[in-house]
């Protein structure tokens, strides 16, 4: 039953991410070719700054909502759940308004004194509207996830991405350029928020609205305080490289880097098992927790490792075909950033600590990694350009992953079997050796190369007993 529930949630969450990433790639390809590299750089920097300041709209509220509402829901205590929901919703709305005003007021200062790019000012002002609505749709999704309902992730993705594609392309085509692209995001965020709110009221209105119990706010705020630091740290971690590139280099290089990061994110986001395991980890203890973790880790590594190794082999033709030859400077950064696929697919550790009410450990480790990331960006970007930013990001992510893995082993005795990682790595190296000797000249030949690589990988993995008939039967029954 647990396997089926997890499989169902993985399908919903992965489907939503596939929709989001496909739309994101479509929009980026369209804008890269339509705006050209300088204006595309302005657009990329605007989005990076907006999402960096979006940290103040969360401060751990979304994860706190999942943690406390999921616990109350599992107990069937709806009055307690309503207390948490009302309290956290008020905080979320207040933070969204504050962040929107902050970006609006800072737009001129940032464009003139930090990035020395006057064209940034007006796009940043319009992006402040985005900070008012987009965080609310994310919060509503977390409420659904607290009920172990990941179908809402797919609904949000479809409503947001469909309207984003239509609005961005329409407004840019009408001649609104970068402003049109930002307004497209605003239209999409409003659409998604209204859609999710309507669905939430219809599906869970009886649970969420009514008599509420007085909750222990101090305990909620204590839990949130650690996640607040973590949320700030993680957002800085995710966007500081793009912002620092904008400070040290011409604005078009932000566009190159964001393209590389977008391609990696589009792939790694599909491997979303860690995200859907959070509500599961909340309910499991001891040997059940270890068993669930090991299965999830094994199957995730089986898929993530060959993708991380194979992406650099096709990076250059992917960039050339999708974005155009003028964006080929993104290729080297893409080679390095492809290792982030492993971090995304195998990053279960933070979810385990948060599920067990110990958010301080991920916060401490992430803070250290964030400081390392900023320092490495400061040192490496002036020397190696966007490749330096990519190196800084991968190295600091590796530190974060390794440290949390060791802490998880020490505190929960939850750790992975080394062979579950070694066998996919060996199989991927053999696969890479084969596909590097194939020189595709057309797109069909390139697609055939990918299938050949996949066949070689799974054949070697089977010979190494990294996958068995038992695994196939288990996955088939889970997803059937």
Structure, explained:
This protein folds into two domains: 1-215, no CATH class; 222-416, no CATH class. It contains 17 helices and no strands. It is globular and about 65 Å long. Helix 3 runs antiparallel to helix 4 and helix 8 packs antiparallel against helix 9 (286-323). It is mainly α and 480 residues long.
Radius of gyration: 22 Å
Count the domains. Answer: 2
Q: Which residues sit in consecutive blocks of at least 5 with pLDDT less than 50?
A: none
Largest sheet: none
Protein structure class: mainly alpha
How confident is the prediction overall: mean pLDDT?
Answer: 81
Order of helices and strands: HHHHHHHHHHHHHHHHH
Cα distance spanning the termini: 12 Å
Net shape: globular
Helix content: over 70%
Number of helices: 17
The total strand number stands at 0
Tell me what portion of residues adopts beta-strand conformation: under 5%
Give a quick summary of the entry:
This protein is mainly alpha-helical. Helix content is 85%, strand content 0%.
What is the secondary structure topology, with strand pairs?
Elements lengths: L1 H52 L7 H15 L2 H37 L6 H26 L4 H58 L8 H32 L3 H17 L4 H11 L2 H38 L7 H7 L2 H6 L3 H7 L4 H25 L1 H27 L6 H17 L7 H21 L5 H11 L1
Helix pairs in contact: 1-4, 1-5, 1-6, 1-7, 1-8, 1-17, 2-3, 2-4, 2-6, 3-4, 4-5, 6-7, 6-13, 6-14, 7-10, 7-14, 8-9, 8-12, 9-10, 9-15, 10-14, 12-14, 13-14, 15-16
Tag the structure with descriptive keywords:
17 helices, mainly alpha, 480 residues
């Amino acid at each position: 039953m647990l396997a089926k529930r997890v499989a169902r949630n993985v399908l919903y969450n992965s489907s939503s991410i596939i929709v989001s990433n496909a739309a994101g790639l479509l929009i980026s390809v369209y804008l890269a070719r339509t705006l050209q590299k300088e204006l595309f750089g302005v657009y990329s920097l605007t989005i990076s700054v907006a999402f960096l300041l979006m940290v103040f709209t969360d401060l751990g509220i979304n994860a706190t909502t999942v943690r406390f509402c999921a616990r109350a829901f599992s107990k069937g205590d709806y009055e307690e759940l309503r207390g948490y929901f009302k309290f956290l919703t008020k905080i979320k709305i207040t933070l969204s308004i504050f962040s929107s005003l902050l970006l609006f007021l800072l737009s001129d200062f940032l464009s003139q004194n930090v990035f020395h790019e006057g064209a940034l000012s007006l796009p940043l002002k319009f992006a402040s509207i985005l900070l008012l609505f987009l965080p609310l749709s994310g919060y509503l999704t977390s409420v659904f996830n607290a009920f172990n309902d990941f179908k809402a992730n797919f609904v949000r993705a479809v409503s947001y991405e469909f309207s984003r594609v239509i609005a961005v392309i329409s407004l840019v085509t009408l001649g609104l350029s970068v402003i049109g692209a930002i307004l497209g995001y605003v239209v999409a965020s409003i659409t998604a928020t209204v859609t999710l709110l309507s669905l939430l009221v219809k599906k869970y209105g009886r649970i969420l609205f009514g008599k509420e119990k007085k909750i222990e706010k101090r305990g909620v705020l204590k839990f949130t305080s650690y996640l607040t630091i973590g949320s700030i740290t993680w957002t800085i971690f995710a966007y500081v490289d793009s912002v620092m590139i904008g400070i040290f280099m011409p604005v078009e290089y932000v566009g190159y880097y964001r393209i590389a990061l977008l391609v990696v994110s589009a792939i790694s986001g599909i491997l979303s098992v860690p995200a859907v395991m959070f509500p599961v980890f909340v309910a499991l203890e001891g040997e059940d927790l270890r068993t669930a973790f090991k299965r999830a880790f094994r199957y995730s590594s089986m898929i993530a490792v060959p993708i991380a190794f194979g992406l650099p082999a096709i990076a250059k033709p992917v960039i050339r075909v999708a974005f155009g030859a003028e964006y080929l400077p993104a290729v080297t950064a893409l080679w390095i950033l492809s290792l982030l696929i492993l971090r995304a697919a195998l990053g279960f550790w933070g979810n385990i600590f948060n599920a067990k009410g110990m958010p301080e450990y991920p916060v401490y480790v992430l803070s250290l990694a964030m400081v390392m990331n900023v320092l490495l960006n400061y040192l490496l970007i002036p020397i190696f350009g966007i490749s330096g930013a990519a190196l800084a990001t991968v190295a600091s992510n590796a530190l974060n992953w390794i440290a949390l893995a060791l802490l998880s082993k020490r505190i929960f005795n939850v750790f992975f079997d080394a062979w579950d990682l070694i066998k996919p790595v060996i199989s991927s190296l053999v696969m890479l050796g084969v596909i590097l000797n194939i020189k595709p000249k057309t797109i069909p030949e390139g697609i055939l190369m990918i299938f050949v690589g996949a066949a070689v990988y799974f054949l070697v993995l089977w010979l190494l007993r990294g996958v068995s008939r038992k695994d196939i039967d288990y996955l088939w029954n889970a997803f059937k």
